Automatic annotation (TrEMBL):
CC per GO annotation: plasma membrane
Organism encoding this protein: Paraglaciecola hydrolytica
Reported function: Involved in a late step of protoheme IX synthesis.
Subcellular location: Cell inner membrane
Family annotation (InterPro entries): Heme_biosyn_assoc_TPR_pro, HemY_N, TPR-like_helical_dom_sf
Domain HemY N-terminal residues, every copy: 17-117
Protein name according to UniProt: Heme biosynthesis protein HemY
Lineage: Bacteria, Pseudomonadati, Pseudomonadota, Gammaproteobacteria, Alteromonadales
Pfam family name, one: HemY_N
Length: 378
């Protein structure tokens, strides 16, 4: 501002003035106009220099950003190539692409995909390491732990699968897929009592697997009782259970199977008839095939009664055929099995009919039936 006033004053009074500057031994003499022009040039130079510095810094920053974007695009390309190669079953190409981004952030999806590649290549240990790494990432933790549980169960390592469950969060443990694998692990590990305790709360999550698991858990539990305390204690234990439990078909099937395993066929027959007074149940009817008594009249009577109302029921015909065969009523067994084979041609019925024909010294027919049963197996 002072410089402006000096210039304007000099112009008004027609006096250019005189300026003398001494600085560290240097002396500069100039008039006011020269000073003004010099100051303007210095100021403009400083502004130009400042602009140049800022432009250089911005250009450098822009280059780093550009290079960073270029690197990220390359990683995205490798990620896409890896997934596409996996979908195309080109596992070596998938491994090559995904391996280059193993340590990059893709929410663990790259690790899960890479683990799947290793499974297809037969490198299970490498897959486990990748799953374990993915399990440490929040977004892929559940998926990775599910893979680890499945792998443990496939390799008969039920206790390892149960250990994985203990490391899950409470929220993850309530996931349906976790519950299904958890139940399988408890069954495979023979933890029958714990499984029985948890099953009621898991009924919705297990869906159609609930009844078979209930039967399996009960069978395991009853087997433990029978092996440690005997068949009599097994029956006492059954009678002491709540009525709702004893009315459950899965529990009934497990109990009857243990009676049969203990050689108590009469008690098993009695229970089968008692528990199916209102009609046949798919979990109980197959157990008639295992009854081995010389005169299972009660069982035969109830099955024949059902067949009067449903004479094309292959399960009932098969059960009657097996029951009659074990009772040495070969004529009834042959009639029932013939009808069952015509309706379904099932392997178990074919084999029993082959045994029956062999006992009648009809070797040609027996051989033909055996061959048919083998074809069914294949």
């Amino acid at each position: 501002m002072l410089l402006i006033f000096l210039v304007i004053g000099a112009m008004i009074f027609d006096d250019r003035g005189y300026v003398f500057i001494e600085f560290i031994g240097y002396a500069i003499e100039m008039n006011v106009m020269s000073l003004a022009i010099s100051a303007i040039l210095v100021f403009s130079g400083l502004q130009l220099f400042n602009w140049f510095i800022n432009a250089t810094v911005n250009a450098a920053s822009g280059s780093r950003s550009w290079l960073g974007n270029l690197g990220q695009r390359k990683k995205q390309t490798l990620f896409r190539k890896g997934l596409i190669a996996l979908a195309e079953n080109n596992y070596h190409a998938a491994k090559d692409a995904l391996g280059k981004i193993e340590n990059d952030d893709f929410d663990g999806i790259n690790l899960l995909a890479a683990a799947q590649v290793e499974v297809h290549l037969g490198q299970t240990q490498n897959a486990r390491l990748l799953w374990q790494k993915a399990a440490t990432i929040e977004s892929s933790s559940l998926a990775a732990n599910l893979c680890l549980m499945r792998d443990a169960l496939q390799h008969q390592q039920a206790n390892s699968a149960l250990t994985i469950v203990t490391n899950l969060t409470e929220k993850q443990r309530h996931q349906a897929l976790v519950i299904k694998l958890w139940a399988q692990a408890l069954a495979d590990a023979g933890h029958w009592q714990e499984l029985k305790t948890k099953l009621p709360g898991w009924k919705k999550a297990l869906g159609p697997d609930y009844d078979p698991l209930t039967q399996q858990a009960s069978s395991g539990n009853f087997a433990e009782i029978a092996s440690k305390e005997g068949a009599v204690q097994l029956m006492h234990n059954w009678q002491s259970l709540p009525r709702s439990t004893r009315k459950d078909p899965g529990q009934q099937a497990a109990y009857i199977q243990q009676l049969i395993d203990q050689g108590m066929h009469s008690d098993a027959e009695k229970a089968l008839v008692e528990y199916q007074k209102s009609g046949p149940h798919p979990l109980l009817v197959p157990l008639f095939k295992k009854i081995k008594l010389p005169n299972p009249s009660a069982a035969m009577k109830i099955i024949e009664g059902w067949l009067k109302h449903d004479d094309s029921n292959i399960d009932l015909l098969s059960a009657l055929g097996h029951l009659a065969y074990h009772a040495n009523d070969k004529a009834l067994a042959e009639r029932a099995l013939n009808r069952a084979i015509k309706l379904g041609n099932r392997q178990q019925d074919l084999r029993l009919m082959a045994e029956l024909k062999e006992s009648q010294h009809d070797q040609q027919q027996a051989l033909s039936l055996y061959k048919q049963s083998m074809d069914k197996q294949g």
